[in-house]
Amino acid sequence: MLSGRHEKWHKSFFSSFTQPQMSSRFIQKVRLILPHVLLCTATLVYICIGAELFYLIEAPYELEHRKFHLDNIREVQERIKYFDIQKYGNESAEELIDELIYVSMQAFDEGITLEDFNIETNLTNKWTFSTAVFFAVTVVTTIGYGNLVPISFFGRFFCIFYSFLGIPLTLITIADVAKFLSDLINHCYWRNVRRKDLKKDGLIENDDDVDSLAATIETSAAAQIFVLLLLLGYMAVAAYVFTHLQEWNFLDSFYFTLITLVTIGYGDLNIETNGENYYGWIAFIFVGLILSTLTVDLVGSACIQNLHSFGRSFDALGFLKSALRNGKHVTVEQWNAFCPPDYWLMPWIDEIRKFSTLSVFKESENNSKKSSQSLKV
Which of 55, 215, 217, 334 could cross-link with 132 by S-S, CB 3.0 to 4.6 Å? Predict the structure, then answer.
């Protein structure tokens, strides 16, 4: 037996380990959200590390590389400018022009553009940390606009290995966030919209039953339409903004938005922006990719489910029986001997399984309560 003081200390000590219901719910939500946060953080850190390495590799090489090719082109241009065709003849002039074409094409293959001939811009670096972050994002999201690419050997070598890990990591992160939002929409729909109807029908008793049922039933058609309209609205608003930022018409802006969100990235339309605006483009890319993945998850899965339901509702067995019956004189009773009596229930198998999942969950929960009570006795 414990004394009164020791008994109070004993209760206070162990009560510190028992948390109230609100605290346990909070911990449960933290455990639910924490893996998603860690995955997003890992992707963000991976992009920043890759951007810093791309910047350190490409920035020193860029100016030297650009100066080398521009000097070669200008040197040939100067020779053509002061070439005496009367003295050396047409054949030498053609050789000089061919040399200019060759060095120009060689520079173009190495990433030199017409903008690099501008005296005001040919001494500025294209590779800054902001542009490197933007390039890293276009790599790991498989968009690849092509307006900024590594030109050094080590930069291209590093890009190969960087994409091997970065592309799966980013695609998994986008799919994970989209799936989390899909489950959240499904949960909110069944908790706030269908809870009263389910309680009235006796399918649920409390909010925990709503959570269990929401995890087993697909999202409603209203939620699917909402997500689809949200994606189209996002694309339309983004296209309208691009008409002012990039001075494109609405069709080109919507076209650019589409090829970005489906990660095609043809590169025929390139963005022109200051270094401060690159992070806005990055936010546009990630939000759009999450919305498009969310739409595919909700609407695409519903379309597949409808196709399965259509296939089950098609009476292929009856069609086969009628075709064979026309070829052979067999009675209906003889053909029905090979048919299960409940085969007509196949189109509703999924619906039955959805609601039976909750009953199984309740039964297992009741069994666990009974077993715990028996252990206490």
Answer: 55
Asked if residue 176 belongs to a domain, the reply is: yes
Distance between alpha carbon 148 and the CA centroid of its chain, in Å?
A: 22
Q: Are 55 and 136 in contact, with CB atoms under 8 Å apart?
A: no
Q: How many alpha carbons lie under 13 Å from residue 274 in its C-beta half-sphere? A: 3
> By residue range, what is the domain housing residue 145?
29-313
Residue 115 included in any domain: yes
DSSP 86-148: HHHHHHHHHHHHHHHHHHHHHHHHTT--GGGG-TTTTTS-S--HHHHHHHHHHHHTT---SSS
The pTM of this model reads: 0.69
| CATH of residue 194 | 1.10.287.70
Q: Which are the contacts of 333, defined by CB distance < 8 A and separation ≥ 6? A: none
Structure token pair of residue 200: 């009235």
Give, for all 377 residues of the chain, the pLDDT tens digit. 445 555 554 455 445 444 555 577 778 778 888 888 999 999 999 999 999 999 999 988 888 888 888 888 888 888 887 777 666 667 777 888 888 888 888 888 777 777 776 655 555 678 889 899 999 999 999 998 877 888 888 999 999 999 999 999 999 999 999 988 888 877 777 666 555 555 555 555 555 545 554 444 455 677 788 889 999 999 999 999 999 888 899 999 999 999 999 888 877 887 776 656 788 889 999 999 999 999 988 887 777 776 766 666 655 556 566 666 565 555 656 656 666 666 656 655 555 555 555 555 455 555 555 555 554 44
Q: Is residue 8 part of a domain?
A: no
If one counts the domains in the chain, the total is: 1
Tell me whether residue 340 is in a domain: no
